[in-house]
Amino acid sequence: MFKLFGKKKSKAHQVYAPTDGKLMPITEVKDDVFSTKMLGDGLAVKSTSGKIYAPVDGTITTVFPTKHAIGITTEEGLEILIHLGLDTVELKGEPFETLVQVGQTVKHGTQLVNMDSAKIQAAGYDDTVIVVYTNMDLLESVSEVKPGDVSHDQEVQEITYK
């Protein structure tokens, strides 16, 4: 005999660190738009390598002209913003080398950008890398992150779809 109303299959997915560095909760980002989760929940990493990787599998849907942010959409439709530093839009793309283009399919761990942290800091800006889930209505839950050292191939957060 089979069950008509079985337990719903879990739709949990792992999110990987976008760079090597120090992982922190998004609430610790020194910008209210991110720390208050105005754009959505997520995580942040203070990069030690300057190499930025896709935290999930998906399709590149946005590459900002100023190269300071990239959008990825997952197969499930979740839109993820990878924001490189705070107020770095002012630097007009100078410290960033984009390695992907709109429409490109990526796997977690695909390198997206080379970021020159020294240039960002010398200009007086914060180089924290922020990952934000912008259409939170698709998510049932987002796990807490455990602050500390991470590498870009490390699972750092679990998201569960509704």
TrEMBL record:
Its main location: membrane. Its EC number is 2.7.1.-. It comes from the Bacteria. Residues 31-135 form the PTS EIIA type-1 domain. GO terms for cellular component: cytoplasm; plasma membrane. It is found in: Cell membrane; Cytoplasm. It is an enzyme of class 2 (transferase). PROSITE patterns: PTS_EIIA_TYPE_1, PTS_EIIA_TYPE_1_HIS. InterPro entries: Dup_hybrid_motif, PTS_EIIA_1_perm, PTS_EIIA_component. Keywords: Kinase, Phosphotransferase system, Sugar transport, Transferase, Transport. One of its GO terms (biological process) is phosphoenolpyruvate-dependent sugar phosphotransferase system. GO terms for molecular function: kinase activity. It is a multi-pass membrane protein. This is PTS family glucose porter, IIA component.
